[in-house]
Amino acid sequence: MSGTAQIGVTGLAVMGRNLARNFARNGFTVAVHNRTASKTDALIEEFGDEGSFVAARAPEEFVAALERPRRLIIMVKAGDPTDAVIQEFAPLLEEGDVIIDGGNAHFEDTRRREKQLRERGIHFVGVGISGGEEGALNGPSIMPGGSSRSYESLGPLLEKIAAKAKDGSPCTTHIGPDGAGHFVKMVHNGIEYADMQLIAEAYDLLRTVAGYSPAKIAETFRSWNTGRLDSYLIEITAEVLAHTDAATSKPFVDIVQDRAEQKGTGRWTVQIALDLGVPVSGIAEAVFARSLSGHADLRQAAKGLAGPSATALGETEAAAFADRVEQALYASKIVSYTQGFHQIRAGSETYDWNIDLGAVAAIWRAGCIIRAAFLDRIRAAYDTRPDLLSLLSDEQFAQEIGGAQDDWRAVVAEAVRQGVPTPGFAAALSYYDGLRAGRLPAALTQGQRDFFGAHTYRRTDREGSFHTLWGGDRSEIEAG
Q1: Is residue 337 a contact partner of residue 365, using CB atoms and an 8 Å limit?
Q2: Is the pLDDT score of 386 beyond 60?
Q3: For an engineered disulfide with 73, which of 4, 100, 199, 403 has Cβ 3.0 to 4.6 Å away?
Q4: 201 is catalytic
Q5: Where residue 3 falls among pLDDT bands split at 50, 70, 90?
Q6: CA distance 377 to 381
Q7: CA atoms of 243 and 412, how far apart (whole Å)
Q8: Average pLDDT over the chain, rounded to whole?
Q9: What DSSP state is assigned to residue 6?
């Protein structure tokens, strides 16, 4: 058994088990290990015929099964459990071996672990994996960080098991050093939050304002999925809306409590964006919308507040409104991706990762939750102009969002008039207007800050920082 496995997976819950099976199905010999040995035995018993597995009960046995340089993937809960597994296996490894964390780790934890293990001569790779349990088994989008040397060893294996885009390219690439992979996965999930919120708002508008049934909305989404909104999330939305609950014969969406949960990566995206000074208002509104949905007591207490009651449109008007909602959804979606890629660029510059944004878009084209047809155009935009500051500066996207803006504004206005909450659509439109504004009211904000805190300000007519002595004659002094 010694040194026969090209890759090892420890932690055999659903994601770890399916990832191990994916490697085995693609011709690799896979060492498998779990703290509870019965999970190892169950994997071999159920799926041992899918490829070559080496079952290991003890950590020493697991490490001995791996060929050099050893490649060991940890698939356990993020945080302390991951640190505990690293502490257990690192002493058994040698210089040049690679530990891979495939969980949803915070990128700062990955940076810390990478530095600590690098000092011991061990490579540490933080890998973002998107696609859920199905993706882990059949081909996910994979976002590895770490040293370029570690990718030389690990990359060929990941490229083999990753999802393949329509052009055959594997949906994985070396993202950058230390925590770059987990950072990009975090932003991916933030964009996912925004995308799901926008789709939910489109559904709410079609149901409340257009008066469509869930089945009718499912048909609408299926139609949208044949055009520029073609994506996995639009596809599954149609499936969810078309589903009828077997126990009640009601639309499935009507028997599910309207309380959306979250695991934390969306919150991380917003928190880190605040640290970086990057406006990700669409992602933030999606996170807050989930939070608001969970405050049942707060919502119950506010039910009697004054406001309009929505009135469904007539059939002809409803059809025209649905077309406008499609425009608003597409425009808002472009803004969400614009904000996400801005955050990746800012993170790359802050941590000196040198992330290729076109390559990121390319590996999101298949396998991951936000996979969508227009990611190919995003890839092309960044490939053509690697220095592109914003997707809204790309000529084609700018033309499309410009063409959509009248309908977009009409949808937001109608939502306000009828009292339907659309925080995602409205935040995206406000961001768009903020970017194109010739002058923002931030000048007044900075004046207020100078008044109460002597925070200084910059002038439009000359260089330097200035402070006004607001008492007395209000004279101005140069502050440096």
Answers
A1: no
A2: yes
A3: 100
A4: no
A5: confident
A6: 6
A7: 28
A8: 95
A9: S
